[in-house]
Write a structure and sequence with these properties.
The chain is an alpha+beta fold and about 280 residues long. The chain contains 9 helices and 10 strands. A hairpin with a 3-residue loop joins strand 4 (about 135-140) and strand 5 (about 145-150).
Length: about 280
């Protein structure tokens, strides 16, 4: 015991009144290991049920992330105390410095606060499919400052959390099982409107991902400068691959238009010149 006490009280470093001993390093290591083991056990406990749906998994992930950050903050406080640094005195003494740092890192703090909101509010969860600034992204991870998602090109995207909380975001995963999509197309003014509507509805119905039980409807939406503008609306459970699905339907529409001599006009403008008097 005396040998152990001697080792723990061995002084590694000293500066004026401060000294670092082996015991302090051992205590820091112990706090770190206990924190890692506690988080590992907590994660195993929360995610032990493999049969839960994506909605419940997202809730569990959000809860784990909040608890993890709280535990690490507490552990960091213990580590500072182990090194002989009084946390309360440190916070009080650095108040002015923290204000200056806060102004410089305003956007970072905004992202962190947004991350806390996302994790606690749980309006967006892991595996949710979002539409952000026109991009379709599947959320893979929600962090304290940034979130990670995968777009339709299988490219991993790092998203600042403030972008999600402050912008208009469509969460496709919060919809019903079926979602409605639309494809727009313009045809020449000489085309038979009823025949075009029939072709558009048949083209959408041919795609295997389109739900044939739900109503497939084509509409004449406007009289354009160069074309009659149509829109075909349909339902599908496909969200993440919706761009590919709509591309396939456009190809079918294009093929049927060629087969039935229906033209998609180029934008055109007539110029009338008056003779000078």
């Amino acid at each position: 015991m005396n040998l152990l006490k001697t080792i723990l009280e061995f002084e590694l470093f000293s500066f004026e009144e401060y000294s670092l001993k082996v015991g302090a390093l051992c205590l820091v290591l112990l706090v770190y290991l206990v924190t890692k083991v506690a988080l590992w056990l907590l994660k195993k406990s929360l995610f032990r049920n493999k049969s839960v749906d994506e909605f419940s998994k997202g809730n569990t992930y959000s809860l784990f992330q909040i608890i993890k950050y709280i535990i690490w903050v507490i552990s960091f406080g213990f580590i500072l105390e182990a090194f002989g640094i009084k946390v309360t005195i440190l916070i009080a003494g650095s108040a002015a410095l923290l204000v200056g740092v806060g102004l410089g890192l305003q956007q970072t703090f905004n992202d962190v606060i947004s991350g806390i909101i996302l994790l606690s509010e749980r309006s967006i969860r892991v595996s949710d499919v979002l539409e952000i600034d026109g991009d379709i992204v599947k959320i893979q991870e929600i962090g304290l400052r940034t979130s990670k998602g995968l777009n339709t090109d299988d490219i991993s995207i790092i998203i600042p959390n403030s972008l999600i909380t402050t912008n208009k975001v469509i969460n496709w995963s919060h919809q019903t099982h079926l979602n409605r999509f639309r494809v727009n197309v313009g045809v020449s003014y000489e085309s038979d409107v009823e025949f075009v509507i029939k072709i558009l509805e048949e083209s959408a119905k041919e795609h295997p991902d389109v739900d044939s039980q739900k109503n497939i409807e084509a509409r004449l939406v406007s009289f354009g400068d160069s074309s009659l503008n149509f829109q075909v609306l349909f339902y599908s459970s496909t969200i993440f691959g919706s761009d590919r699905m709509k591309s396939d339907i456009r190809r079918v529409i294009r093929r049927k238009f060629i087969e039935n001599d229906i033209s998609i006009p180029f934008p055109q403008m007539d110029i009338h010149m008056k003779p000078s008097k």
